[in-house]
Specification:
It is a single chain. About 30% of the residues lie in helices and about 20% in strands. A hairpin with an 8-residue loop joins strand 2 and strand 3. The longest helix has 22 residues. The chain binds zinc ion. The site of zinc ion has 6 residues, from helix 1.
Length: about 140
């Protein structure tokens, strides 16, 4: 296990922990106006995706893909956004964000300027669907050593 001093993803979870596996964790980012914003965070402090061995790259993208599939089924978003940036926090993490045409930033990226205040009633509908989404993810991504 490698960690870097001062790294927020080494020193903290980076959101509400949904699943914790030996090599990765899934967290809910709790970003206002974006109710289904999750992150797959690699446990070790790894800077670039290509720094991972091939088996770990495959395992990581399998988690990302499983989250996307479950979002499509449970939340019916306009789009799912996948991104790994790391400009601010250079610790490998994938953003998996269900996007809706009414969300705070649509159609722009989640990191750009907000376009509107998301309708709280629509946000609540999505939030109400998250426990079902997360139960399915727990079943499908059952953390294994
Ligand atoms: Zn780190």
């Amino acid at each position: 296990m490698s960690a870097a001093a001062g790294c927020p993803l080494c020193e903290g979870p980076g959101g509400r922990v949904v699943l914790q596996a030996p090599r990765w964790r899934l967290v809910h980012a709790q970003e206002a106006g974006l109710p289904a914003f999750y992150r797959v965070v690699w446990q070790d402090h790894v800077r670039e995706f290509s720094d991972l061995p091939r088996d770990d790259r495959i395992a990581c993208l399998d988690v990302v893909t499983t989250v996307e599939e479950a979002m499509l089924r449970h939340l019916h978003p306009a789009k799912v956004n996948l991104a790994t940036l790391g400009n601010m926090v250079p610790h490998l993490h994938w953003h998996v964000i269900a996007r809706f045409d009414w969300d705070s930033h649509f159609p722009g990226p989640a990191w750009g300027p907000a376009q509107r205040v998301a309708d709280p009633a629509r946000v609540r509908v999505i939030e109400a669907a998250l426990p079902g989404l997360e139960r399915e993810l727990a079943a499908r991504l059952r953390p294994s050593p």
